[in-house]
Amino acid sequence: MGELRTGHTRMHRFEASDGWPLSCYEYAPGPRAEPHPLPVLLVHGTQSRFTLFDLGEGVEGRAMGEEGLAPYLASRGFRVFSLDLRGRGQSLPASHFGRLRARTWRGWSVEDFRDRDLPAAIAQVCAITGAGALDYLGHSLGAILIFSLLARRPYLPVRRVVNVGGVDAAAMRPGSCDERFELIPRLYSASRFAPYLPLEAVMPVAARLAGMPWSAPLLSAFVHPPNMERGALRRVFGHALTGTSARKLESMYRWFQDAEGRNLAEGARYVHPTLHIAGVADRLVRPQMVAESLARGRHPESRMILLGRAHGHRSDYGHCDLLVGRHAHREVYPQITEWLCRPDMAS
């Protein structure tokens, strides 16, 4: 795959509380749009990168402005920051030896994401913009992390949250996903043989094969294939997915095993206004799991949108196509924009 030409205007490098280098990509507001008062922080899922929010220029079947949620929001006046969590892209040490050491010896966990990366990113965005708070959008694990963080630290400067294909950790219990796609236990078993799973090494091959008629069953864990153009699929597999640390998989496995204990208590303490977005064809995060998370939240104005043909949309939606599906810029992005533009909500 060639180099991805994303629309960000600047990359910010900073450190988490333990000194780990992080990167965040800024998208400046469009010159003709009315500026939005608060910045927006976008955080990807477990195997993704910031590029899931921006597939770059020249995507087959996509017009200018349809490349992803980050440039879409920027064109409508939002100052957008898209984070790469540690262990991917530029969120690794700069030297080759440093990267090798980080991946094979040090590793990272979901607790590192939650307790170190997210607070640092929130503080960095507020410092850059001078804003007293920000709005947060998380996809998949990016949403799980903020639910847990804000349940523990509700005083952080986050005004409201958009959850795209995520849940609180209490909903992620054994048997909650489609039985064919219990990915965490399977990857956890594989990770016992290596400290780092270099999934990005096979992604260029997967990108070339994506969109072939026989590939649909393999892809359905991540997307609803009829809702994806082949060009967008290739961008996702070629640029938006990455490898993973064995420590991360182990910590996720432990986290989700405690769904009936600590995680359930966290869900009951979550009080932020939240827009939950789910897809009827999502095999990883079923709509019922999202509905359970909505019910556990304690803000009266939180709500849920379910995307699928039965609900008046052009297609059913899977896990990643909530963000990169062929109709997302018409059916998902405007609802996110409307939520972010609503007046401040009662607490």
Instruction: Report the order of strands and helices.
Output: EEEHEHHEHEHEHHHEHHEHEHHH
Number of strands: 10
Any idea what the CATH architecture is?
A: 3-Layer(aba) Sandwich
CATH topology: Rossmann fold
Structural category is alpha/beta
Query: Order of strands across the widest beta sheet?
Result: 1-2-4-3-5-6-9-10
Structural overview:
The protein has about 350 residues and is an alpha/beta fold. It has a single domain (about 10-340), classed as 3-Layer(aba) Sandwich (Rossmann fold), CATH 3.40.50. It is built from 14 helices and 10 strands. The strands form 2 sheets. The chain has an 8-stranded mixed beta sheet, with helices on both faces. A two-stranded antiparallel sheet has the order 7-8. Strand 5 (about 135-140), helix 4 and strand 6 form a beta-alpha-beta unit. Helix 3 (about 110-130) crosses helix 4 (about 140-150). The longest helix has 20 residues, at about 110-130. The chain is globular and about 50 Å long. The model has no long low-confidence stretch (mean pLDDT about 85).
Structure summary:
With 347 residues, the protein is an alpha/beta fold. It has helices spanning 69-75, 96-106, 110-129, 141-152, 183-191, 203-209, 216-219, 230-240, 246-257, 262-269, 287-296, 321-324, 328-331, 333-341, and strands at 10-15, 21-27, 40-43, 80-84, 134-139, 158-164, 196-197, 244-245, 274-279, 303-307.
Any descriptors?
alpha/beta; two-stranded antiparallel ribbon; Rossmann fold; globular; eight-stranded mixed β-sheet
Write the SSE topology:
Layout: E1 10-15, E2 21-27, E3 40-43, H1 69-75, E4 80-84, H2 96-106, H3 110-129, E5 134-139, H4 141-152, E6 158-164, H5 183-191, E7 196-197, H6 203-209, H7 216-219, H8 230-240, E8 244-245, H9 246-257, H10 262-269, E9 274-279, H11 287-296, E10 303-307, H12 321-324, H13 328-331, H14 333-341
Parallel strand pairs: 3-4, 3-5, 5-6, 6-9, 9-10
Antiparallel strand pairs: 1-2, 2-4, 7-8
